[in-house]
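User: Sequence recovery, please. Input:
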């Protein structure tokens, strides 16, 4: 048993002698000297960033490329009237900045003030009444009932005149 203790004790001294002997930290000392030698406050400047260039999408008034093209029969095409024209002097309402195809009727309300329709689109649900404008083609709400909102749009006919085009938004049932 003494011989086992003697061997263990000698191995312990050998390991300790290897740890504290002639080990050199010269590489660490050289790195620390290099870091200390750098001048204080020598931070590299930030890179120059390119300013943001805004992109304006100019084809928003054109037909959507995801909708089928409208076939026009030139012989049966309605001719516009010079008497019909939109009122360009009035102040545009918020819902005129969006396509009428994006709106769906989701409900109706009535009170002493009259009948109102709830249309969903343009980022939320909006209350409209007869006389309000809706859509980009000068669409004016002409009638509201429990199931539909009737809109009369004024669109150009392509020959310098204007046409009145009726549209209806029907009540969207829960899906």
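Assistant: Recovered sequence (175 residues):
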């Amino acid at each position: 048993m003494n011989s086992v203790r003697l061997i263990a004790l000698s191995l312990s001294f050998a390991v300790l002698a290897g740890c504290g002997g002639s080990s050199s930290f010269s590489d660490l000392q050289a790195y620390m000297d290099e870091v200390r030698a750098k001048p204080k406050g020598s931070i590299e400047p930030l890179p120059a960033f390119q300013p943001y260039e805004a992109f304006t999408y100019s084809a928003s008034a054109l037909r959507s490329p995801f909708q089928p093209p409208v076939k026009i029969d030139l012989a049966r095409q309605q001719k516009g009237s010079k008497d019909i024209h939109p009122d360009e002097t009035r102040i545009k309402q918020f819902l005129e900045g969006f396509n009428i195809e994006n709106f769906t009727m989701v409900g109706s309300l009535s009170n002493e003030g009259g009948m109102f329709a709830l249309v969903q689109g343009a980022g939320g649900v909006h209350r409209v009444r007869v006389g309000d404008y809706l859509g980009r083609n000068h669409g004016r709400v002409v009638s509201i009932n429990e199931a539909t909102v009737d809109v009369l749009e004024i669109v150009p006919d392509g020959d310098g005149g204007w046409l009145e085009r009726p549209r209806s938004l029907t009540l969207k049932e829960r899906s």
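The beta strands are 104-111, 114-121, 124-129, 133-134, 139-144, 148-156, 162-170.
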